[in-house]
UniProtKB/TrEMBL annotation:
Keywords: Acyltransferase, Transferase. Residues 5-161 form the N-acetyltransferase domain. It comes from Basidiobolus meristosporus CBS 931.73. This is Acyl-CoA N-acyltransferase. Transmembrane segments: none annotated. The lineage of its organism: Eukaryota, Fungi, Fungi incertae sedis, Zoopagomycota, Entomophthoromycotina. SUPFAM superfamilies: Acyl-CoA N-acyltransferases (Nat). It holds the Pfam family Acetyltransf_9.
Length: 399
């Protein structure tokens, strides 16, 4: 069936051709070639052996016609970590579709992940046909829940005009502010390992700087982070206290008559921790603010969202669009109903596009996970404790 094709691992010297191929396939979506170049150069865990290609045999030279890439990652699972292989850059030229090339390359990718000891594979799809392909090859869907707010611009303007006195949200260059990245890294790892979640990527400082901090190839989306620290010298028995929060957002223009656009507040973390005023030492004894002071967590969330809206010039537009959509993972959304937030409408939505497949057995919650259903069971309520893990994936980690 595939006599006219060669299937193998990409060679280092073929990377420019790989980027060219991806740019052609994803051109209808407007994805620039630089996006794929950055995906390679800014990935500290990149592995050329994880790129599988199908080449058309040709007397004048082989041509890449289909690709699959495995992104090496570790994910947080209820306080521990497991090795994950993310499937991405699945791309077949239109003239070579429906010939089984993607299926064959996915089989090659599965063999690679099995050999290198990866525990679980993850991917995200947006179309039914693609999901059917992955399901037929053993991947299973796990829902990811979001909260979608419709926020009056006037309310965001109030948060900007009357900020908490001790808060000074500042935009930051994620690729250049090493001190803030260190603090954000400590917050991210400590808070997410405290929570009963599965799916977030575990990040090294190198990954923070190179992957999270890399400039977006989509300048119109205004991707940036906001960072804020509250110093509280009256910390009591535990000594001086501080509350630190950060938000990473991006924006897309809206097409509805009353909506300016959508802020994807894809990553918000806030925590309390003991520290000396002005100290630059690593954070310790970090406590998740969502659990201990939900009212402050809520206020910080909206304060930083408002600061981002001002940064993105969403409140200076002279038109009839007087609302902004704010979208955030449900497990990061505020649980406290702040009286200052009256007028905000919301609905909970589900993304059904995340899929997982167990590659090599591993232990989690004192159970040996061998099949996909074992993984899915982690997110179901337990008859004894009525507890379950929350599925969480942060947009900043998308591959």
């Amino acid at each position: 069936m595939h006599e006219e094709y060669i299937f193998r691992t990409l060679k280092e010297e073929e990377l420019p051709l790989f980027f060219d191929h991806l740019a052609v396939v994803f051109q209808p979506k407007g994805t620039p070639r630089q996006y794929f170049v950055d995906h390679w150069n800014n990935d500290p865990y990149r592995d050329i052996n994880g790129i599988k290609v199908a080449l058309l045999k040709d007397p004048y030279g082989e041509k890449i016609v289909s690709t699959v890439r495995v992104f090496r990652r570790s994910v947080i699972l209820d306080g521990t970590t497991i090795d994950m292989g993310g499937i991405g850059e699945v791309a077949t030229l239109p003239s070579h579709l429906r010939k089984g090339l993607a299926r064959r390359l996915l089989q090659e990718a599965l063999s690679y992940m099995k050999t290198v000891g990866i525990h679980i594979s993850s991917l995200h799809v947006s179309s039914g046909p693609a999901q059917s392909l992955y399901k037929s090859m053993g991947w299973s869907a796990v829902d990811l829940h979001y909260r979608k707010y419709k926020v009056p611009v006037d309310l965001l303007q109030q948060f900007v005009a009357t900020p908490l006195v001790i808060i000074e949200p500042q935009p930051m260059d994620l690729s250049d502010n090493w001190e803030n990245l260190e603090r954000m890294s400590a917050l991210h790892e400590s808070v997410l390992t405290q929570r009963s979640v599965a799916g977030p990527i575990k990040r090294s400082l190198e990954y923070w700087r190179e992957w999270i901090g890399s400039p977006s190839p989509y300048p119109e989306r205004k991707v940036t982070g906001f960072f804020s620290t509250i110093q509280r010298p009256d910390g009591g028995q535990t000594g001086p206290q501080a509350t630190t929060a950060y938000l990473i957002s991006e924006y897309r223009a809206g097409h509805e008559s009353e909506v300016i656009g959508e802020i994807n507040a894809g990553e918000f973390i806030a925590a309390s921790h003991p520290t000396e005023v002005g100290s630059k030492k690593a954070l310790n004894d970090i406590k998740d603010l969502r659990d201990i002071v939900p009212s402050l967590y809520s206020r910080l969330f909206w304060q930083l969202v408002a600061a981002y809206a001002e940064y993105a010039d969403l409140m200076t537009l002279e038109n009839q669009k007087r609302h902004v959509i704010v979208r955030t993972p449900l497990s990061l959304a505020p649980t406290f109903e702040d009286k200052e937030c009256k007028g905000i409408q919301y609905e909970d939505i589900v993304d059904e596009g995340f899929m997982y497949k167990i590659i090599n057995d591993f232990n989690a919650q004192e159970v040996r996970l061998q099949e996909n259903q074992d993984w899915i069971n982690l997110f179901e309520k337990n008859d004894t404790t009525n507890a379950k893990l929350e599925h969480l994936f942060l947009r900043s980690d998308s591959f």
